[in-house]
## 1
Amino acid sequence: MDYVEQLTPENLKEMYRLLVLTREFEDRICGLWGKGGVIELPHGSQGQEAIAVGACYGLRRTDQVMPSLRTRGAFIVKGVPTKVQMAGIYGKVTGAARGKSTTHHMADPQRGVLLGTGLIGSDITVAVGAALAFKLRREDNVVVDFFGDGAAQRGDFHEGLNFAGIFKLPIVFVLENNGFAEYTPLHKHFAGEEFACRAQGYGFPGLRLDGNDVLTVYEAVQQAISRARAGEGPTLLECVTYRYRSHCENQRPEYRRDPDEIAFWQQRDPIPRLAAQLAKRGLLDDEDRLSVHAQARAEVDAAINFAEASPFPPAEEVGEWAYSPEDPALVGGRRS
Ligand SMILES: Cc1ncc(C[n+]2csc(CCOP(=O)(O)OP(=O)(O)O)c2C)c(N)n1
């Protein structure tokens, strides 16, 4: 089935809007970092937005995503309001974690956003557990699990993919191969040609694809989801991309980037690429494009204003919601 063929002009324009909004959001928080207000240390996803947007577009509300550090687009597509995300970034009570955490390690169970662990790679086995729960409950939902090339070098990757393969779990492993694991370029932590072929060792398909083309990502993920919903098990998708910014905003420019390398990737930037595809089909002219960008700026402005105007959580809440209220011994964060 060709899933891209079935997208309507409105769907395609909406994908463009989501890419632009994700980029705008990330650019703004990176720009605000260090100037007071923003307490989340931004780990920018600029350059690799097509992966999260392409993978999450078309997911059901009941499908779950396990975010990576660079899946701002997943929160946006899954419908976590930008003002709630921004409030979390400012540590305000109106954020998803009521000021207890930023958008790193934030969850939104109603929208199917799972809570990661903060330990690179260990989210993979948590996501596999969520897929196992779907299977045990006989629900035809899927889990989309995002992680980087560095995470794929940890033992959790092997344990998670092996388990998911054995039990044919409904999960799509989306590996964001952006060429770096923190400071370490790919060639220094990987002697292989590609990650996708590892899937063969776990008994399911693996595919390496252009992670900067939102429609390529969408097609591959939709195919994998259809396999997963049909009970045929997981797929590993290695999405090749590049991140423009440093690992995170408080780092010195630790790796000297080759200007030719940056120029190479800028020519493949997911946003102008989709704009060109839409323009070719007569779906987006210059005026539309400027209007999408202006709307994204206005939405992020409103989110920043909301976050700045929101209060910090009251001190009395410090022990609340830290433990499961279902455990009577731990209610209110205190052992009785
Ligand atoms: C177990 C563990 N080791 C180290 C870290 C610190 N750390 C945070 S992100 C990161 C790099 C992850 O690289 P990759 O998975 O390729 O994702 P990317 O940052 O490139 O998107 C590291 C080493 C961590 N969070 N957990």
## 2
Amino acid sequence: MEQGAPDTLWRATVGPKPVFHRLDGPAEVEVAIVGGGFTGLSAALHLARRGVEVLLLEAREIGWGASGRNAGFVVPNFSKADPAAVMEKLGRENGKRLLDLVGRGGDRVFEIAREAGLGRQAEQTGWLQPAHSPAVAKTLQGLVEAWRTLGRSVHWIDAAETARRTGMEIYHGALADPSGGIINPLAYVRALASAAAEAGAQIVEDAAVTKVNSAGGGWLLETTQGNVRAAKVLLCTNAEEEGAASLLARLVIPLNVYQIATEPLPRQVTERFSPLREPVSDTRSNIFTFRLDADNRLISGGMAILPIGAERRMGLRIVRRLASELNLTEVPCLAHVWRGTAAVTTDFLPHIFQLGPGFLGAVGCNGRGIAMTTMLGEVLADAATGVALEALPVPVTEAAPIAFRPLARAAPSAFLLRGLWDDWRTTTRRTAAKAENAPTLKGEVS
Ligand SMILES: Cc1cc2nc3c(=O)[nH]c(=O)nc-3n(C[C@H](O)[C@H](O)[C@H](O)COP(=O)(O)OP(=O)(O)OC[C@H]3O[C@@H](n4cnc5c(N)ncnc54)[C@H](O)[C@@H]3O)c2cc1C
């Protein structure tokens, strides 16, 4: 586990962290949750609100994992799957239930954020997915129709409107989803923790769960702060690999993602490419993303093919790409660079894994996890309070480890390499960047 706190924009700008109690001796509860990210905390919140005795154990601090490091794009959609593929894979009824769950994710995130009083740290601006080629535009238009048939309010905007709302001339239109938006993820995950604690959940930080053993018809969790007995266990550790988290990690592929934030930009500059403040994630394989935070800092991200010395190198590369794609006259000053690990399932769908009787693991990520994991927590709360596993809207799967996982870990880099080639072939070329000054890290002289 990495030791130092990451240099995220969120840590630098969010207020003081809430304080939680330590375990004072061995504990016995109805439901133990492992992992203090969106998934575990959303489950804890819903269980506590239903009066269930619940204890959440977090190895470091709330939001230490992907939930406190992500880019804060609230995207109530899949990264790869589309409605037809979901219904084909899960069957019409089960597929529809998952699609309905995904579709409600954006509204639910912003509802929780409003309840927590997050103010400008959570803006339901909508989300844009611009198409980088005519063929992809056609596919996305089909997707808009498919979602609309299911009652979603997504719509298609043409190339001129896309250019007006992104400042970029290369796109052939965009899917617009008004239920998406932007959030400060650390503020959100801490708000979930405070709400769960207020509802009666016990939250313990610095308590790594090293082992989960079956004991007396329930489970015994060995933690760095003592043992916990629980009738049911929810493992919500995403792609983390330490201690008990390895039980879930072997079922997913970890994906390293780099994020950057610039210094705040003048409103007259950001108005040109983000007049409505919508987050943008395009359709290229080497996906181009950007959003603003409440103070008009630009936030973007990317993946490295070779992770050696990647944090600084990637930061510079991402900020140069921002300047080039958005046609900025000056490269913005790079203020924060950080990295996080997302979890990818082999079919790019969220999954609940059966790890034992009353012992479930869950992964909702695949890169679009804020809305999905918030909903997944509710589903886990249902599962822990007696809803039959077959009736859940998320597929419940055998916990079969990914074959040749060490090799599979290299798959994202290989896909990125191939994707760069595909992007180069299919993207409409545009004029070279006007930016000429070299980007600098905060505190450095260029
Ligand atoms: C860099 C990055 C950018 C992203 N950007 C976006 C985005 O813009 N929009 C979006 O929708 N999604 C995004 N995602 C995905 C999203 O962040 C995740 O889907 C989501 O945060 C996963 O939440 P989680 O609760 O399942 O896991 P996590 O937030 O990773 O939480 C797991 C927790 O488990 C704890 N833990 C691990 N092992 C143990 C143990 N043995 N005992 C106790 N605790 C343990 C960890 O410390 C961690 O806090 C991004 C992901 C990354 C990495």
